[in-house]
Every structure is written in C-alpha cells, then in structure tokens.
Amino acid sequence: MAAYHQGYGGHGSKHRGRGPPPQMADPNQLFDDTSGAAPPPQAVYGNQGIDMGFNVNNLFTDPMANVAMTYGSSIATQGKDIVNKEINRFMSINKLKYFFAVDTTYVMKKLALLMFPYTHQNWEVRYNRDAPLTPRHDVNAPDLYIPTMAFITYILLAGMALGIQQRFSPEVLGLCASTALVWVIIEVFALLLSLYLVTVQSDLTTFDLLAYSGYKYVGMILSVLSGLIFGTDGYYVTLAWTSCALMYFTVRSLRMKILSTMTADGIGASGSHNSRNRLRMYITLAAAAFQPLIIYWLTSHLVR
pLDDT (tens digit, 9 = 90+) per residue, 179-209? Predict the structure, then answer.
C-alpha cells in the first residue's frame, strides 16, 4: 500500500504520465524565443488588400475617357472666352498692355523728362499707321508702369516716414494709400466730365488721363525723401521744384491732346468756338495747377 501510494501520488509518477519536464528559461534572456513558433498573420496594406480594378494606363487608352477630357477642355476654353469678353466690355486688355510696354531706357528718360521738362522740344506723340507708338519707342507716350510703381513706392515711403516719427499703424498706412488713390480717381473723373461738357474731340482715353494724373507720385516721393533727409527746408524746396516741373509737363502734354483740336474747330471763328477754346485752355491750366495742391496735401503730414 505504501508503495502503491507513493507510485500513485508521488511527483515522479506525474512527470512520467505527462511527458518530459519543461525546460527552464534562461534567466539572462531578455525576450522569449519565438523562432520556432508560427509567424503571426501580417496585415496587408496598399493595393494588395483591395483591388479596385483601376489602371492609370487605361485612362489614356479608354475612348470614353478621351472624350470626357476633350469635352472638359472645350468647356474650359469657352469659359475663358466668356471671361475675356466680359472683361473687354469694361476694359480692353490690349489697350492696357500698351501702357505697360516699357523698358529700362524709357523709364530713365521719362523720369528725367518729369524732373527736367524745360529743355524738351518735341512733345508730339508719334504714330505708325494711325496707331501710336508704344512707350518704349516714344518718350512722349503716356504709360502706367511709372505711376503704378511710384504709387507703391509712395506707400512704402509713407510707412517708413510714419515709423520714424513713431506714428505708424496699419490703419494710418491704409488711410494714406486709400486717400492717394481716391484723389487720382476724382481727378480723372473730373477731367472726363470737363472734356465731355466742352465736347472735346480728341484721342484722350481714361488710361491716358490716369497716366498723366499718376505722374505726380514721382514728385511726391522726391519731396518726402528730401524732407526726411534735409528737413522741412529741403521738403519745401523739392516741392516747389517738382510742382513747377509737373505743371509744365502737364500743360505741354495735354496741350497736344486738348488744345490741338482748336485748329479743327477754327481758331479765328467767333462766338461759341472762341468760348469753347477758352474753356479748353482753362481745363488744361486747371489740371496743371491742381497737381502741386495734391502733392502738398498728400505729403505735408509725412514731414515734421
């Protein structure tokens, strides 16, 4: 009984009935050895798990895809034509390109003409087959490149002047920009209205008037720079010089556009023709005299 009890309940019988004893793990091993185990199931990503049946190469060989691409291109072209047509209703892109057809030589000559117009002799705009030459071929032709760049430079210079005087703020700079732009627009509309009332038949366009009105920004820049460098004395001296030069330039330039129609209407005629010619002369002089007032109004608060 004792032997039977030991064989039945002893630890030795348990190991013989259950198989070989398990191996003891190595105490120095950091991770379990899983080399003999079955590899875990791996997730499948990308195109291996989902087959959409889509091939990029089929997009260009499929007739239906080609038809759809052609139809989309035609719709885009039609939309572009409609947009250009609507823009041309209010503003001609080709005419606008004419005023930006400049080069470095023209810009330098034009700036010199704006500051020293007294020695210039021929003020007539040259034509080629009833079409005016582009600004790069004629220094007398008006342009919008110089007024645009001068306007941007004036805004930057105004911000610098306000910063030096510890008065800079985005609101004040925005007010300077909007005021300068609004005054030019008012000036252009006033000239258009005046020319319409006196029935002047000339080739002056809105872009021409905008260019002649925008040349004042060059004088404004020089006046503010002189004020920042030389003080108020330098500002007023430069203001006087640029104002006189700009008035002379404006009269001589507009004279070829407005006063030249006097010959067609008859200078020696009496009555309404003489009064109309005087009105044209007054409009030209008023447009020239208005320039220094705007220059002073837009620059005096920047120099202290």
Answer: 999 999 999 999 999 888 887 677 788 999 9
pLDDT, averaged across the chain: 78
DSSP string for residues in 143-210: -SHHHHHHHHHHHHHHHHHHHHTT---HHHHHHHHHHHHHHHHHHHHHHHHHHHHTT--S---HHHHH
Q: What whole-number distance in Å separates Cα of residue 235 and Cα of residue 142? A: 27
Residue 43, both tokens: 């997730």
Residue with the larger pLDDT of the pair 145 and 37: 145
CA distance 160 to 172: 12
Instruction: Name 132's bridge partners.
Output: 127
How does pLDDT run across 73-102, given as a tens digit for each residue?
A: 777 777 766 665 555 554 667 788 899 999
C-alpha dist (Å) from residue 89 to 34, 75, 76, 77, 235? 79, 21, 20, 19, 44
Give residue for tokens 């460098």: 229
Structure-token pair, residue 122:
């021929």
DSSP characters for 55-112? -HHHHHH-HHHHHHHHHHHHHHHHHHHHHHHHHHHH--HHHHHHTT---HHHHHHHHH
DSSP string spanning 241-280? Answer: HHHHHHHHHHHHHHIIIIITHHHHH-SS--THHHHHHHHH
Q: Residue 204: which of 287, 112, 111, 274 has the closest Cα?
A: 287
Bigger pLDDT: 147 or 18? 147
**Residue 253 buriedness (CB in 10 A; 0-12 / 13-18 / 19+):** buried
Rounded distance between C-alpha atoms, residue 40 and residue 33, angstroms:
14
pTM summary value: 0.69
Better-scored residue on pLDDT, 275 or 280: 280
